[in-house]
Amino acid sequence: MPCGDYEGEDESDNDCFGPAENKVRVRITVSKSGILVDFTGSSPQIAGFKNSSIANTYSSVYLAVISFLAPHLPKNDGAFRPITVLAPAGTIVNARPPAPMTMNTVFPATNIVHACWKALAACDPVRACAGWGKSLHCVTSGQSPSGETFVMYHWHGLPAAGAVQGRDGFPTMGTVPTLCGLRLPNVEAYEQLYPVTIQKYEMRRDGEGAGEFRGGSGIDYIADVDAAAEWSFRGEGANGLTAFGINGGIGGQSGSLTLNPPGAGPIDTPQFGVRQLGPMRIVIASPGGGGFGDPRRRDPNSVLRDVADDIVSPAKARKTYGVVLTDHPLSVDFGATRALRARVSPPRPVETPDVLENIG
Hints:
The longest helix is centred in the N-terminal third of the chain and has 17 residues, at about 105-125. Helix 1 crosses helix 3 (about 105-125). Strand 13 and strand 14 form a beta hairpin. The protein is built from 7 helices and 14 strands. The radius of gyration is 22 Å and the shape is flat. About 20% of the residues lie in helices and about 25% in strands. By secondary structure, the protein is α+β, with helices and mostly antiparallel strands.
């Protein structure tokens, strides 16, 4: 890694009780002896439970650096020894009592990882990882018709992963700190275990962050919970927060979560909080992942496949990816695509082959 100073930041738009601007700011200094990860300038600790302990901040930094540079390394003291962390006390990355920290392994951890990834991308763009969608789901607990207590996590509404060089982001995945370690449950099994009917579970259309390698699409999820229950909301990925694109890639689409009583319109729900509610229909559009690289360098055949799979609309294929498609049969018009892409000279921040040189 070239020696120097590299900066990044990530944000949250609430303090669990209402709107608030919270920033995780980092400066990573690379030297011959290691790296210094300095969070000076990060926001003060907040009233809600999204503060990070110093231990969680260290863990998040280790995760960010090792996953970015060398995921094959053993996760031990020898790998982490060259990393020094500076996290000022009383900030969102090193909160002091009585600040709550209930969700520090998910929400501030995501901000910390994203801020570090952005700084590291400035140091080594080829290794960069685009942002993952932020968590947007809820937990439903209550009594089933048989009288048994149930606790159901609506994992099917989890966000998408960001793209990296050579690979699109996964369409839905656990939060960033899991690094793909969360296994998504089977829909049919959920319907056997809980008083729920899942009406829709499919990849979003145009939810992805466009790029030479696109972000994950996110998920459209609709489920009917047929029992009264307590609902616990964790809506970090709503209200416009997006997964960042990298190296010319575009950010993923923000998500949304709504609840509808049977036969009625949507009701107000908190971004974070708990509500006692009757039977409800939950509708989630989970956040998409960020894209890597300029979208007009994406392989036109990959765009064609995405359109055929209804992940990307024909209009977005043309406007954002610069790919012209024909109908009956659906195919790429390579001549028109070359002409359309030639109107805008795409930046080339990462050395990759020209995808149209050997196609068509």
